[in-house]
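Practice set, problem 2.
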Amino acid sequence: MRNKLLILLGFAFTISLSTGIAQTSGEYFNRAARSYVKTEKDQALATVKDGLTKFPSDAKLQALKEKLEKEQEEQDKQDQEKQDKQNQEEKQQQEDQKSQGEDGEQQESKEDGDKTNEDKAKESQAGDPSDKNEDKPGENANDQMDANLADKQKAMEEFKEKLKAMNLTPEQAAQILESMNAAELRYIQQNKKKATERPKRGIPDW
């Protein structure tokens, strides 16, 4: 029984060995062609190379190998071109975004500069408030002088009434009034001169 089992195993091994040896170049070609039709180009190329190791001079296997390698090379080239194009588009997009950002910053800077110039123009048109107020001291002095003159005139009228009550001669009354008028005139001229003079800034008025 044991001998029969060994004989059967040996027979099966012999059949399998003979089957492997009997595989022809045409079978390798057909297997590679079926893989190629299924778009399994890597598998097809591997089968062709395997067949050429056993049948290196087979013309059909060599032709199929050249075709598969050429298509593989073209496919790699297309993939590389596609990748390069994608990289170029991404780079261009980044440059465009950077350029837009710089243009935006320049526009903002220009707007800020325009606003600053407008503010300066408004300030120039408005003028220095201190210049507008320079005449106020003179105006106040004129008002004070007018008030003093009114008081002086009132006092003069009262004094004239007193002169009449003193029963002076017309010559004496005229002489006194002339002296008073001369003194009043000098007083008015002095006050007008002081009112028209502007005090110098930063210098005490004494």
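Problem 2, part (b): a different protein.
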Amino acid sequence: MAQQNIDTAIAEERQDNDKSIASQNRINVIDDETDEMAVQYRATLDTIESLRVYNAQLEKLIASQEEELASLDDQIGNVTQVGREVTPLMLRMVDALATFVAADVPMLMTERAERIANLQTLMDRADVEDSEKYRRIMEAYQIENEYGRTIEVYQDTLSMDGEARTLDFLRVGRVALLYQTLDGEEVGAWDQKAREWVELPSSYLDSIRKGIRIARKQLAPDMIRVPVAAPEDKS
């Protein structure tokens, strides 16, 4: 009987121990779950903070882009206004260049007339930016300006006694525009005041031949004798 009581007590103690172990295991599981939830909670807080910072930065970016769009709208309006003001100016510049060429000595007239015609066509094109139109106009002005500082020889035709003759033309800046027949026996010059070609005496033959050779880089630069119109008496 006593042994039976002892066995019963031991069994009950084991049962209590098993219950304690089970309870501790449940507590451990709860602790683990609590720790995991705490980690997840902190991670969620970190995510929320990151999103808050990101949203704040995104709002700044959107505000900046809206300001930039507003600025671009203003600039587009200004460009349109500037375009309306620049176009008449460029048209006047092309017209002024055409008038100048028509009144200038008749050098390289085909080339110069073609350049002006191209500018006039360019001004009518809507697919070309104003900046490119202006660049081309200024380029034409620069070319005209260079004519006054250079010496050049080229061939062209001239009507003489009702006959078109091919001649060598010598341009000395804008100081003189001269010609020489291909056989080198006749020379002449453009009289800007009378606006006509005049034949020069044979005393100019050697000088004009020399000038042509200099322009062709067959001789080193040197002084040459050319006819120059006397200044007008404005008294």
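Answer key, part (b): The first helix runs from residue 2 to 103. The chain has a mean pLDDT of 81.
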